[in-house]
Specification:
Blueprint lengths: L2 E4 L5 H14 L3 E5 L11 E5 L6 H9 L5 E3 L3 H9 L3 E3 L5 E2 L4 H16 L12 H18 L1
Parallel strand pairs: 1-2, 1-4, 2-3, 4-5
Antiparallel strand pairs: 5-6
Helix pairs in contact: 1-5, 3-4
Amino acid sequence: MKIWVDADACPGVIKEILFKASRRTRVPLTLVANHAMSVPKLQWVDLLQVESGFDVADNEIVKRLETGDLVITGDIPLAAEVVEAGGHALNPRGERYTKDNIRQRLNMRDFMDTLRSSGVDTGGPTAFSPADRREFANQLDRFLQQHR
């Protein structure tokens, strides 16, 4: 099993949690981004820098994903591709995307996108909180305990 991170939009505090978990468990961790970023010098942690462009990082993750891998992403269409390919997806707020809930999440995302494109102010996501950070860390720990 390997952990892939859609790193361009991943909050720094989540990356730090992932680095600690990878250091503790030695599960390989790859951050995929279209710009350079700092990663710890550990043999099981690396950065895959891809070209800039729409969905380039997402496509690279899907291309390299193996059954059972975990992908950290807030991108619901990417999460849907991951789940369809036999991977696991977890968003930075600690929500697991599964075959049971991904269609509903995609439908809601598309509905909200339609509202925004018609001029409706839908607000945005709430600010990332310490509770979100705790929930992510708890879900990640549970996943690693179940799948290692």
